[in-house]
Amino acid sequence: MSSDTDRTGPTLDVQAIRACFPALQTGTARFDAPGGTQTPQQVIDAITGALSRPLANRGVLTEGGRNAEAIVAGARLALADLLGSEAGQVVFGRSATQLVYDLARTLAKDWGPGDEVVVSRLDHDSNIRPWTQAAEAAGATVRWADFDPATGELGSEHIEAVLSGRTRLVAVTAASNLIGTRPDVPALAASVHAAGALFHVDAVHYASHVTVDLAALGADTLVCSPYKFLGPHLGVLTGRRELLDSLRPDKLLPSSDAVPERFELGTLPYELLAGATAAVDFLAGLVPGAGSRREALGRTFTALASHEDRLRGRIEEGLATLDGVTVHSRAARRTPTTLFTVAGRNPGDISRHLAERGVDAPAGSFYAWEASHRLGLGAEGGVRAGLAPYTDDDDVDRLLNALDVLRR
């Protein structure tokens, strides 16, 4: 993918990127990326290619078995490059939610009365309910870390207020899928580890916009979902090798006890793993240059941040000119994810108005149930405008023009 470079660093060739997405040919201006991005042709071709060649259970004796083995190995390497992890520490599952449930049940085998688990009100429910339900089943206590609804910030002070010598695990998002807040995760990790607890990070929304580094974040375990960054629907978990080696999840007797296979239930979806590899490679190829795939991904996310921050600024400046609009995305560091409401207007009605004008900006609480209620928005939530590598200025113009029509 071609790019231009100036004094501010590499930039994305957005029109070249857009040409790779068949779904964009419908003409809709899409701001629904936080719920799942559209798929480039290269990923579609990788999925089709995997299904078009012989496939069988993984092995070395047949062509199908070798193809499956190569797909799995390639996907582990690709996701390790994306997450700053190692291939042997990459676990695949049906979804991030499923993987967190499995992890919570496994860790909770060692919890009991007197133990404490901390969750945050900023999080998507998939990083809350698996932990609270596992804690309750084990007789452990759940403690809630609040965030500041006025600023959207979740700081170390919010976590430290609920830590104790009995804390076994803290689960926190690296980026809110509702309002985009990006907490200082390494600082949170330092507080958690000082208390002797494990630290789990939800990077589902974060991994779409920021270079992920497992060790730098201080995460003991971390999850993401390729369909949020141009890939197919599945979940990915990674974590510290020594921790993964120590865990004993429920599994079938004949299935492998090796890590990471120990955590993977049933036969993996080989075609989706091929698509996930293609998604990582697509991202890595958006800004040309020498070096490893990991280094290429770093260049891409640097360019992506510049592109998305500029468009986010345009959206927020435009919203500021409209009467009755309240923007709820206010944190100093945040993803290009803008949640807003309009006085006297139901968020669902606004989203419907936009859809009728070819603009997809959905409304709701987006499974961030606790955060939406803490903001006073309840189950209705707000309208969310989220950006992706293929979002362009014309999309932003169409969003703002449609909202101006609503105002008038």
What labels would you give this structure?
408 residues, 15% strand, alpha/beta, globular, 39% helix, four-stranded antiparallel sheet, seven-stranded mixed sheet
Report on this model:
The chain is of the alpha/beta class. Helix content is 39%, strand content 15%. It contains 14 helices and 15 strands. It has helices at 14-18, 41-52, 63-83, 96-107, 129-138, 156-160, 185-194, 214-217, 241-246, 270-284, 293-320, 347-355, 369-374, 393-407; strands at 3-6, 9-12, 29-30, 90-93, 116-120, 141-145, 167-173, 198-202, 221-224, 235-239, 325-327, 337-342, 359-360, 363-364, 382-386. The strands form four sheets. A seven-stranded mixed sheet has the order 4-10-9-8-7-5-6, sandwiched between helices. β8 (198-202), α8 and β9 form a beta-alpha-beta unit. α4 runs parallel beside α5 and α10 (270-284) crosses α11. The protein is globular. Residues 1-7 have low confidence and may be disordered.
